[in-house]
Amino acid sequence: MKQETVFTQQAHQGSESLHRTVLMTGATGLIGRTWLPLLKKRQPGRQLVALVRRREDITRLSQLGVTAFLGDLIKPNLGLQKADYQVLLNTVEEIAHCAADIRFSSSLAEARAINVNGTKELLDLARRSRHCKKFAHLSTVYVVGDRTGDFQEEPIQPGRFLSPYQQSKHEAEEIVLHAAKDIPVVIYRLSTVIGDAESGRVLQFNYFHQLLKLALSNPLPVIPGDPDAPIDLITSDWAVAALDHLFTDCFTPGEVFHLCAGPERSLTASALIDLTFNFFEDHPHRMPTWRLRRPQLMSLPEFEHYARQSLANGLRHRFWHSLSRFLPHLGLSQSFRHPKTSAALRSTKLTQLPIRESLTKVL
Questions:
Q1: In whole angstroms, what is the distance from residue 137 CA to residue 67 CA?
Q2: Of 83, 87, 103, 314, which sits most exposed with the smallest number of CB within 10 A?
Q3: Distance in angstroms (rounded) separating the CA atoms of residues 127 and 219
Q4: Among residues 56, 184, 168, which one has the least CA distance to residue 103?
Q5: pLDDT at 3
Q6: Nearest by Cα to 139 from 179, 98, 183
Q7: pTM for this model (two decimals)
Q8: What is the pLDDT of residues 237-274, one digit of tens each?
Q9: Most confident of 3-7, 31-35, 212-216
């Protein structure tokens, strides 16, 4: 707490450097924890402030030269003490909103609490602040729900949502876009992040990784899947580097950007399944406990009918229920286009390694 006090005192004394403050939420999450050191390196003249919910994060972040405020996105004034909130109103120039409830198992009320109401609170801070010039909202390409087709970097009309996470992130986008008339906002939609391109290290496991584990103990003879559907995957190192460039060097208020592979760099559902099973079948340390059974693919409507008839109870039902928030994506032909992102990155050396190579390392 001492660092908070010093920061507050400096702000009240009119320290000029504190009028160049970057506020980040979600600094301990997958994107935030990787992006924060990069922001620190790229913007050494700026004060970095993180909003955290755990006291132990204050000490850890202070070792990186980052000031941490203990708060809560879902509470009025971000759950901050009055003096600390006033400091942010007086000093914040840029906001990177990375925090989100990414659990597919959350109820809609739980997902909305952080993803929608937390975004409203942060937008209110930006609206009331004296210096805010940038507001970056991290979203997901899967706000499209179960709609199929090509999706551009623009506001979208979604289909049926497959999870409360999707619905709450779409609702958050709507309030961010509505705020664009008086706040300089940008939406960055990320695709599925699988791990580091070079090492294959996974910093945060998600439902895609659970899907990969499906190959080792699959009790389902069939799964939903369009063999030709592109499965859009990106690596964490590329995603963070691209995000940092877009935010730091190419911030364009009112725009939507896709940080994705695009159909031209995506594996098809059938190629993804083949790569995964080939990898485990040929693994030099293959375990006798692995039950490698390649599932048959069927259309999503057919599978949903099958699930109602054949997965009503027992182990298969529990297995399907745990993966039902993500598994249907294999049966949806969704292509995410990224012309604006590609144009913005053209002047950099940022390139995506072939996803087949990166995914093999992750496996």
A1: 21
A2: 314
A3: 52
A4: 168
A5: 47
A6: 98
A7: 0.92
A8: 999 999 999 999 999 999 999 999 999 999 999 999 99
A9: 31-35
The residues that bridge with 135 in the sheet, in sequence order, are: 95, 185
For tokens 């949903």, what's the residue? 304
Q: What are phi and psi of 263, to 5 degrees?
A: -60, -30
What are the backbone dihedrals phi and psi of residue 354, each rounded to the nearest 5 degrees, phi first? -50, 130
Residues 6+ apart with CB under 8 A from 35: 24, 96, 98, 240, 243, 244
Contacts 24+ apart (CB under 8 A), 211-216: 211/323, 211/326, 211/327, 212/276, 212/362, 212/363, 214/323, 215/276, 215/277, 215/280, 215/292, 216/280, 216/290, 216/291, 216/292
Q: The tokens of 160 are what? A: 């049926």
The band of 12, judged by pLDDT with boundaries at 50, 70 and 90, is very low
DSSP H helical segments within 144-268, as ranges?
A: 164-179, 207-213, 236-248
User: How confident is the model over 162-186, as a mean pLDDT?
Assistant: 96
User: Token pair of 69, please?
Assistant: 């405020």
Q: What is each CA distance from 68 to 3, 16, 50, in whole angstroms?
A: 8, 19, 5
- Strands 230-231 and 267-268 come out as antiparallel
Of 53, 94, 54, which is closest to residue 74 (Cα–Cα)? 53
pLDDT in tens, 194-249: 999 999 999 888 888 988 887 888 777 888 889 999 999 999 999 999 999 999 99
Mean predicted confidence (pLDDT) in 292-301: 87
Q: Which residue type sits at 76?
A: P
With beta carbons less than 8 A apart as the criterion, state whether 85 and 7 touch: no
Strand partners, 291: 217
Distance of CA 291 to the CA centre of its chain: 32
| Residue whose entry in the numeric block shows the structure tokens 């930006």 | 126
Mapping DSSP to helix (H, G, I), strand (E, B) and coil, where does residue 187 land? strand
State the burial class of residue 351 (Cβ atoms within 10 Å of its Cβ: 0-12, 13-18, 19+). Answer: exposed
pLDDT at residue 296 greater than cutoff 70: yes
79 torsion bin: left (phi>0), alpha (psi -120 to 50), beta (else): left
Cβ 49 vs Cβ 88: under 8 Å = yes
